[in-house]
Design brief:
- This protein has 201 residues and is α/β, with parallel strands linked by helices.
- Helix content is 29%, strand content 22%.
- It is built from 5 helices and 7 strands; from the N terminus they run ββαββαβαβαβα.
- The protein is globular, with a radius of gyration of 16 Å.
- The chain starts with a strand and ends with a helix.
- Bound molecules: guanosine-5'-diphosphate.
Length: 201
């Protein structure tokens, strides 16, 4: 079933966030390091080319709010700026803007943060930092792997098991996606709907 989607806000400061209470619309955020394939996945999930793919890494500083009507639920998919553009993530702790950090920390409507990680690379330093930071916030964290088309189908299961062994934090079984061959997209969409419906009861 196709979703009805539109851009609701492009925010460079908190004053540009959509109001939270009129009425309350729940939000699912998409987070990941720059170039992980976030824009591609956001577009694939939305079924619409609203997110700008291939922007110079680190350039997209705004938080983009997409309004989604699935037919059963209404929510916002929130595209956060790429995480960890700073060269040395070890020494530079401030890998996310103040705006993004405070959005995740304070936004009451935010019910789930999807952490996008490249399926090929294992958990990079940035990914670990992001996982640690997100797990300190009181927000559930769900892993969506990207670029799965780069890994043979026969190897995907073992690769996923290795991530779990390595201490991956995820509120549910991570979903393996590819914007290229569209694997996992329907699964990710169904997960979001199910997750939101689960909160409503
Ligand atoms: P973002 O910076 O995280 O928003 O990443 P983009 O969506 O702009 O993608 C970064 C690069 O990865 C682009 O060159 C994309 O074509 C490529 N890419 C994104 N998704 C996939 C995927 O699922 N498979 C493959 N093979 N490449 C992808």
């Amino acid at each position: 079933m196709s979703w009805k989607v539109s851009v609701e806000a492009t925010a460079f400061n908190t004053g540009q966030f959509p109001p939270e209470n009129e009425p309350r619309i729940l939000e699912i955020a998409m987070a990941g390091r720059s170039n992980v394939g976030k824009s591609t996945l956001v577009n694939a999930i939305l079924g619409s080319k609203l997110a700008y793919v291939g922007a110079t890494p680190g350039k997209t500083r705004s938080i983009n709010f997409y309004r989604v009507e699935t037919g059963t639920v209404s929510f916002r998919l929130v595209d956060l700026p790429g995480y960890g553009y700073a060269r040395s993530s070890k020494t530079d702790k401030k890998v996310w803007s103040q705006l993004t950090s405070s959005y995740v920390e304070k936004r009451a409507s935010l019910v789930l943060v999807c952490h996008l990680a490249d399926f090929r690379h294992g958990l990079l330093n940035n990914d670990r930092l992001l996982q640690e930071w997100l797990s300190q916030q009181s927000k559930p964290l769900m892993v969506l792997f990207t670029k799965a088309d780069k890994i043979a189908k026969s190897k995907r299961r073992a690769t996923l098991q290795q991530y779990v062994k390595d201490g991956l934090i995820s509120t549910d079984v991570p979903i393996i996606t590819s914007g290229e061959d569209r694997s996992g997209i329907d699964e990710a969409r169904a997960f979001m709907v199910r997750y939101l419906q689960g909160l409503a009861v």
